[in-house]
């Protein structure tokens, strides 16, 4: 089939995000200027540069109490920092719980029973026990076409890696089985990997 998004697809559900898969999940923790905290997963997330290391995530909907966006973006606007927490398969249920449409006064760490600890380079909490955490300082927020579409870019200023996932000095993802977002309500988990060498290596 072929369709123009502006004209509709005619299917029971939008196939766009089912085609762009799998997508890593950025479990974004933030702290507002008043000290309240938020934790929410975003599947429009990825690393975007090596030196300095940089990441991005996009928020694509809004809450009525957050001036055209969601808690994560609103908090980052106020404080200029955020932390990306890597989601392992074992944390799938708390991650999903934290995705609920909670009012801004609800702390998702508490709501989902997730232990937190302080970041080292920014004033923000991170998910304690996550396979890895990327502490980030905001570089820019880009308003994208469409309602409430914002891409948030940050420079990584600190990286935590859980010791048990390091094997011979390398991160072994099969030790924690990262979770990925598919389309619809579907997820995937990485259980095995294989290696390909580029031409000339």
Keywords:
Pnp Oxidase, Chain A, 14 strands, 35% strand, 201 residues, 12% helix, 7-stranded antiparallel sheet, mainly beta, single chain, 3-stranded antiparallel sheet
Nutshell version of this structure?
This is Flavin reductase (DIM6/NTAB) family NADH-FMN oxidoreductase RutF. It contains four helices and 14 strands. By secondary structure, the chain is mainly beta.
Q: Please report the total strand number as a whole number.
A: 14
Question: Major sheet, described briefly?
Answer: 7 strands, antiparallel
Helix content: 10-25%
Gyration radius from CA atoms, angstroms: 18 Å
Low-confidence stretches: none
The CATH architecture assignment of the domain at 24-160 turns out to be: Roll
Q: SSE order, as H and E?
A: HEEEEEHEHHEEEEEEEE
Q: Would you state the CATH class of the domain at 24-160?
A: Mainly Beta
Per-chain topology:
Layout: H1 16-19, E1 23-24, E2 26-31, E3 37-42, E4 45-49, E5 54-59, H2 71-79, E6 81-86, H3 92-98, H4 108-111, E7 116-118, E8 125-127, E9 132-143, E10 150-161, E11 166-167, E12 170-171, E13 179-181, E14 187-189
Antiparallel strand pairs: 1-13, 2-3, 2-6, 4-5, 5-10, 6-9, 7-8, 9-10, 11-12, 13-14
InterPro entries: Flavin_Rdtase-like_dom, Split_barrel_FMN-bd
Domain Flavin reductase like: 18-181
Organism: Rhodovulum iodosum
